[in-house]
Structure formats: C-alpha cells, structure tokens
Design brief:
With about 150 residues, this protein is α+β, with helices and mostly antiparallel strands. Helix content is about 40%, strand content about 15%.
Length: about 150
C-alpha cells in the first residue's frame, strides 16, 4: 500500500462503548471525515486473543484489570482506510486519558476515566497492519472504491 490514500488503521470500540450504544456515533465520525470502512465485526474475544493484542502492555500493573475489562462484553472491530488515517484516527479519538482529550474528540465528548475510554486505535501504520491481521482473517478485509472517492481526494 504505497498510496497514502490506502493507509489502514485498526479501531476497536471497547465493551463500554458497545454497552453505551456509541458504535454508530464512532463509525459516523470516521465516515463523515471521508474514511472508508473496509472491515467490521462484533465479537467477544478470548483472554488469550486480548493478551496478544495488548502484549506491549503486559508488564504494566493495570494489565490484568485491562484484560478482565476487555473480556467483560463484546467489542466492535473495524479497519478504516484513507490518507493519514492512523494519525487522524488518533486525533479523532483524543488522548488516552479522556480528561486530557479536547472537546470534539470521541474521548473528549464521551469519556471521563482512562479505564473506560471507549476505543482503541492503532498508534502506527505498522501496528495497524499487525492489529488488523490479528483480528481479521484473510479475505475479511474488503477492497472497494466508494462512489464519493473522487469527491474526497484530489
């Protein structure tokens, strides 16, 4: 994917976001921005699957609580595609700590506590690729061109 317009990121609505009925609002914000949804599913991940996903946090004292929380209910996993979608996706989500997130960001508008910050978003193009392939099997990520593509990109 050399074309910057085809950069991909992995976004996951965590159990609190699903329980609060915010999945549609989060998807709407990415769609309104002009990003393309190329994969989406709801699932209830296993402890092992989540431990692999969050492997870089394994040494942190909050890790066991994070895994318990993440297995407490279903999550909605998505892969979004578009120009600088990793960077912009992180900006749209806001700071990991919602109290440091600006109003207008997803976390700034809908969260208070860091342990209930609604979403996960890839922090780099590389992690976007790794996370997307961890959550979606071969063939589950779609290739398609939306009708508005030429109205979003020059």
């Amino acid at each position: 994917m050399a074309d910057k317009r085809s950069e991909r990121t992995f976004i996951m609505v965590k159990p609190d976001g699903v329980q609060r009925g915010l999945v549609g609002e989060i998807m709407k914000r990415f769609e309104n921005r002009g990003y393309k949804l190329v994969a989406c599913k709801m699932c209830r991940p296993s402890q092992e699957h989540l431990e692999e996903h969050y492997r870089d946090l394994k040494s942190k004292p909050f890790f066991p609580g994070l895994i318990t929380y993440m297995t407490s209910g279903p999550v909605v996993c998505m892969v979004w595609e578009g120009k600088e979608v990793v960077k912009m996706g992180r900006m749209m989500l806001g700071a990991t700590n919602p109290l440091e997130s600006n109003p207008g960001t997803i976390r700034g508008d809908f969260c208070i506590d860091v342990g209930r910050n609604i979403c996960h978003g890839s922090d780099s193009v590389e992690s976007g690729k790794r996370e997307s392939s961890h959550w979606f099997k071969e063939g589950e990520i779609q290739e398609w061109k939306p009708a508005e593509f030429d109205w979003v990109y020059e």
